[in-house]
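Pilot study result, target chain (95 residues):
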Amino acid sequence: MFHVVLRRSGPQWDPSKPLEEQSGWPEHAAFMDGLVDAGFIVLGGPLFDEHRVVHAVEAQSEDAIRSTLARDPWSGTHLEVDAIEAWTIRLDGRR
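Predicted structure:
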């Protein structure tokens, strides 16, 4: 089952610094790369405002998503979950 996950910047996000200069970036990036490698995150990235992030996630439940993202080194500090919505994919141009 697919879900759309919307995350937003948390209390330790420093808007004066680019993404790669935020504290704990290497650990967060490694964690997220692992989720992509595992097939958990299908697509993801920041929105234009750079304070919100969207992920297309393949998981069985919202609880599974929350427990997985809770292990992110940025969870609750640099990123917080705003919303998780189940998503019915009807069009898929990926090959």
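One observation from the pilot: The chain is about 20% helix and 30% strand. A full batch analysis is planned for the follow-on phase.
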